[in-house]
Amino acid sequence: MSASEPPQPLNLDTVAVLSAALSSLSLPPEPPPSHPVNPPPASLPHSKLIPKTRFIVDGFKHADSNFSVSYFLSHFHSDHYTGLSPQWSNGIIYCSSTTANLLHQILKVPQTFIFALPLSQSVLIDGSEVWLIDANHCPGAVQFLFKVPMDNKNDCSSVVRFEKYVHTGDFRFCDEMRNESVLSEFIGADAVFLDTTYCNPKFVFPSQEESIDYIVRAIERIGAENEGEGEGVIGKKVLFLVATYVIGKERILVEISRRCKKKIHVNGKKMEVLRALGLEESGVFTEDELESDVHVVGWNTLGETWPYFRPNFVKMEEIMTERGYSKVVGFVPTGWTYEVKRNKFAVRTKDSFEIHLVPYSEHSNYEELREYVKLLKPKRVVPTVGADVEKIDSKHARSMQKHFAGLVDEMAIKQEFLMGFLRGGSERVNGEKDCPSTFDNSKENEVEKSVQELRDCLPSWVTRVQMLDLLSSSDGNVVEAVSNFYEHETEFHEQVLSSTPGTSSLPGNSENEPALPFESPSVKSVNHAENISLSQSFKLSSSGIKKSVSSPGKRKRNSDSKGTKRAKAVSTRKSSDSKQHPITKFFNKKMLVSEDSKSEAEVNNSCDDQSRFSADATELYKEEVNQFIQIVNGGESLRSYAATILEKTKGDVNTALDAYYKDNTGTTIVDTNDNKRDSSKVIESEFTNQICSVDTCAELSENNEPKIKSDILCAAIPKNDNPVNYASLPPERYSPVKHG
Asked: pTM, whole model, 2 decimals?
């Protein structure tokens, strides 16, 4: 190998490594995991198992060598290494070199079962590529990045596909992670297993640097105020106590020593940990309490921190008397004590005792979690910390996933989600039971009914995938899905706008733009035989609805409000009509247009249609065809078929995709052999029952033909011999605030 060639990645077979480890200890070899794969242990949480692998992360108490011998430890904290002991022999533990030293020196785990991996370097483990990157948590803490090859036995393509997963362990997001080249390769990952310790908007505590500055300034200020009042060099006046874990918060201690020019006193157990970390010889720490007035104490020495802080002044008095000081100042650095008010950190005082609650955390706060998900834009987020996140049907996990709505890449899983839906749930997103956010797809009839009801309640630009996602996040509850939509309407609109082809080519001059649908009388209608009934169109399945749903913004009343009131007073409802649900009032819209704009728009639309269909469809929809092929992962042989579908859907990629997937499952929407078929039927299958108020927009003539008033355009009332076009703004022209 030449010096210029990069080194080949380490290639490990865990079964072989384990066999060698057992042999070196003269232990009988473990039988390799069975093939086909045994199901994972029933007690193993889905958040600890990497999909499509046998890799278990921080799940040692669920160890089962019949299922897996490949274990990963993110860092050396007891809630993550529970299950490890000097008797461990169930598999190989992959971790960082720092964590490997702690495992061997502190827990006495046999060295032969520990395999240290380098940072930011690719390692091939059991056929999957694995990277370790710093987690900015405690010393040795890492995030695991997995690139897992997929089985192509059902795929004619010879190209190997991969799924990518990020497991953060415990971590705190920082700007340095943006510059991590390896992490940039995992943008769009299939899932991020996220440390959701502080996944709540109330946890937006300051940066670690701000918290360290506060501690250093407090020590300097209090020390200066009491200078010269005691005896000796140190003065024996004020004792500073810093609460820490067995491992963690070392950065605070090092900064106090560096900036305050003080040594830090620790006990023998803490010094053993520091020795394993390589910090014993740094000159910062000492076991002689007379050398320093800054002492490290155990985590609960100054008080209990959960579920709220309860100070232990009795223990502080014992320490003060025992060590000969006249004042004790303690610091409790943790995000759980976050009580910042008026830019001041909370302080508990009693007599000669002070306890400063410092929101220094080694976990990401709420905004940092959202920033991290926004950076990676994964297909989904899997919470790893929470009340019941280890359960498959965890309501808490679903609640936390809603905090990342609009940040994950829903559009990237359109093909995967729809194919799984149309197959009745036979192909899950995760291939197993570890996708709790997806409701039961096997009940297709009920789902279709819910989709139809949801479509009646939302603007026409909302895509089918977005409707399915809304129903998924609300467990099929239409009312809750509508409410969730209007809470995030702008985000949903931006998703549609970003995926709509050709938006950049729209003219910037509004005077030259074609008339909008509600500005034009050339309304493409549905079949006249269709029964137009407001009372039937907006029924919701849930009876006795208590949760109200309103539009995202209330419109200000203008000078025409009086006239509108008079118009409403004239129109009356028939006694036989059922009561209309309040939410539908939002959609009973009417727009005023002039007869001149009618005829002009009709001529323009006619010319546009003729010019569009006279051009070659493949060239006309070149960008849309490319996007279509990329989404369905097709080849050049699909280009002609894609162009045909897009021609019939007028370039609407979303509708074309729905037609393609339904066509592949035996439910054909687009008839590619019938060139004379009205393309409106394709759209009709996706967007139906677009209705506006009949009693305010139209009058019925003697032969029951709807007659549209000359000064009012009702988008849902059909006009004979006109193709279908639902009166709604296209996504690129729609503004949730202005038109919602």
From this structure: 0.59
